[in-house]
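Recap from last week: sequence in, structure out.
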Amino acid sequence: MLWDRNSGEPVYNAIVWQDRRTADYCNSLKDQGQEPMITSKTGLLLDPYFSATKVAWILDNVEGARARAEAGELAFGTMDTWLLWNLTEGKSHATDATNASRTMLYNIHSGRWDNELLQLFDIPASLLPVVKDCAADFGSTELLGGEVPILGIAGDQQAATLGQACFKTGMMKSTYGTGCFALLNTGDSAVSSSNRLLTTIAYQLDGKTTYALEGSIFIAGAAVQWLRDGLGIIDSAKQSGELAAEADNSQQVYMIPAFTGLGAPWWDADARGALIGLTRGTGPAEISRAALESVCYQTLDLLKAMQADWQQSGDTVLRVDGGMVASDWTMQRLADILQAPVDRPVIAETTALGAAWLAGSRAGVWPDQAGFAESWKLDKNFAPQMPAEERDNKVAGWDTAVRRVLS
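Predicted structure tokens:
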């Protein structure tokens, strides 16, 4: 989002993370050999997912935007910064390190906006917010009937990592919402990925940065929404699990949900979705199962990539959250495909919980990391049950199906 510093009015509609309008721009920068430099500084891959090319698009395509930006009249921010600006009535233009790390303009090693990246994307530094810790004094709001301090900000997946109390190196969480996002805490080491994962900031507290490896799946719960809104074969998300349980096990139907390209570990913006393995006997139950299983297979691909990059011993236990984890069928199939235990917490809305903990701990009304970790409660553990041969055959079929849609 870009907005006028005086009036507070946006100069253009907000551009969401799934928007692919800058794909050609990203490809041109790749052709120029810019991606290695960008990745070395930001930990990110050159993709329309991130903010930098979207900011450049607004500056170049909205009449007068670039001149106003260069005159210092405009401000940029992701949604946290926009909310903070409005809550403080324009007094605070700030963000935290995790949100800054998703812009493709922030050097995650030096902990500051990067001049070389700003020059590459032709973005004036005057647009940028101040970067703070995740738990910090971001100002206060008087819009709630009294002066209320704003003490915590974190990116969506980083907040979920905190809400899952993944404070120890090696802990992993995966959030299943519209997309799926898995983060592995790598401590004070910014681990470079050889498998096209992202190196990102997990959180920054008291000036200390903790890093993570992240895998991003663009379509998870959105596949279920497509079953409901696009195909009309279910009336509610809950029905997808009920239908999947009724599917004919002799059919191997795969859905590759590349509606907006494929995320990690492929990062193929031009791939498109497919249903593979259809027969005359395929119906709503088999398609529903394929949609839910696609999330499980994609998580497995992320887990394999993380294990290859991290190269640390020990068994993986995955802590899960988000709307999809309410489905017991999906979580059991996830454990079966991963061949690893899956832990669902009592509080599944861990993104909100993590953001709340940041503010509460900063205010001194919630416990420190150790105390908060002790308060994490397990709702249900899902252990693998599928025979290894059956699982391996299913995974091999998935690998073949994915190769058919890669551009």
